[in-house]
Design a protein that fits this description.
six-stranded antiparallel β-barrel, TMEM183, 226 residues, alpha+beta, transmembrane helix, transmembrane, membrane, CLUMA_CG007964, isoform A, 2 domains
Length: 226
């Protein structure tokens, strides 16, 4: 048994046993205990266990997540948890989460027109700058990616060269007349210098930022609207 001074010297098998009693929301804190717990939370055994305990135990008709298309058990389990695990499903969305796109690299921009409502949709795919990640995370092509989705009544032309620009600034303010909001996005190059590209959406209907594990993110990716 481990005492307070030797807990980090516990055999990894002990940490695997302890991990069987964790809830999904405990994953981060558990991973930060030591290198061995980090190893545990980045194993397929750990994620298979979470899937069986918190998803498959309630939805027995569900098959184990597939690992096709470069995906892995970790990614699919996280996605399923955000669709079916109550504590994740019921999290309140931050209406101002769009500012979390600041500092991320813009990979691509796509535009579509909703002819029924005559509004424009702009989807910016942004990604965190490269950093050390686990081997399982490296298998996820969407790791660190987010979609910034903007709906507006106004058509806004794309930047001439949008790829690999960094989002420098995002702000939402009242439009002239105080009846709606406008959104401004400013880009810079990878050195932090202004790239001379600023987009202003005025007025906007809505703006949302989706992380790669959210159902809405996958819906946009699957439909090709990203």
């Amino acid at each position: 048994m481990c005492d307070d001074t030797s807990w980090s010297n516990c055999h990894v098998d002990i940490w695997f046993v302890i991990s069987r009693y964790l809830s999904p929301e405990d994953t981060l804190n558990f991973a930060l205990i030591c290198k061995k717990t980090f190893f545990v939370t980045n194993s397929e055994t750990y994620w298979n266990g979470l899937f069986d305990r918190f998803i498959r135990s309630k939805y027995k008709w569900l098959d184990k997540p597939t690992t096709s298309n470069g995906s892995c058990i970790r990614d699919e389990t996280i996605r399923e948890l955000f669709k079916m695990y109550p504590k994740f499903m019921n999290r309140k969305r931050d209406p101002d989460s769009y500012d979390k796109a600041v500092g991320k690299i813009c990979i691509s921009i796509k535009h579509s027109l909703n002819e029924k409502f005559m509004d424009q949709s702009y989807v910016f795919k942004v990604k965190s700058k490269s950093k050390a990640i686990s081997k399982l995370a490296q298998l996820n092509r969407d790791e660190g990616c987010q979609l910034l989705v903007i709906r507006s009544k106004q058509f806004v032309p794309f930047p001439y060269e949008s790829d690999n620009l960094t989002v420098k600034y995002v702000s939402k303010n009242l439009s002239r007349g105080f009846r709606a909001y406008k959104l401004k996005i400013q880009f810079c190059d990878h050195f932090g210098n202004s790239a001379g590209e600023t987009l202003v959406f005025d007025p906007i209907i809505s703006v949302q930022l989706y992380d790669w594990w959210e159902p809405e993110y996958k819906a946009y990716i699957t439909s090709g609207s990203y």
